[in-house]
């Protein structure tokens, strides 16, 4: 698939819609105005790629709706050269947004089918600095910790302690917490033992699962 003038026009309309919903982080909006979301979707969904909706990407997983991507990314307060861990690579779209913002992205996927599909896609699209891993995301990536920021793109019933431990002091974790409906939670590590927590709007994500789902 190519990125045509039509696609770029549809992205402009999407960004306008996100602004109307209250999105004000211009760096995030610029990233989303630049990165072609349709390239991360199956061809069958290309016509709807720039509507503010989630779509299936296989293995009972979804690409988050654009408003959710913008919301989480804005809460993360991405700075250039931040080391960011993403739990749930999925389509690779969120990782691409983070990389566009200048972060050094480490992204973990537990579904082998998605991992093998998304890793070459990110390479082909020029995001060669994104490091992808086939691992149990609930355990984080301790070999590369600590991280400046951690973003979780699946719903956790409780916040995994392993992820809290992998944050730098001053670092931020953004994670949807809850079961049927989740509250978006922003956690800041204040010291070796202290964390602040702030809860925001309601969202719905696929559940954060442990273990690997390997191809057979």
List keywords for this structure.
seven-stranded mixed beta sheet, Rossmann fold, 216 residues, globular, alpha/beta, two-stranded antiparallel ribbon, single chain
Describe the model:
With 216 residues, this protein is of the alpha/beta class. The chain has one domain (52-203): Rossmann fold (3-Layer(aba) Sandwich), CATH 3.40.50.150. It contains six helices and nine strands, in the order ααββαβαβαββαβββ. It has helices spanning 5-20, 26-34, 66-76, 93-100, 112-124, 161-165; strands spanning 55-58, 61-63, 83-87, 104-109, 131-134, 147-152, 167-178, 182-189, 195-203. It has a seven-stranded mixed β-sheet. A two-stranded antiparallel ribbon has the order 1-2. Helix 1 (5-20) runs antiparallel to helix 2 (26-34). The longest helix is centred in the first third of the chain and has 16 residues, at 5-20. It is globular and about 50 Å long. The model has no long low-confidence stretch (mean pLDDT 96).
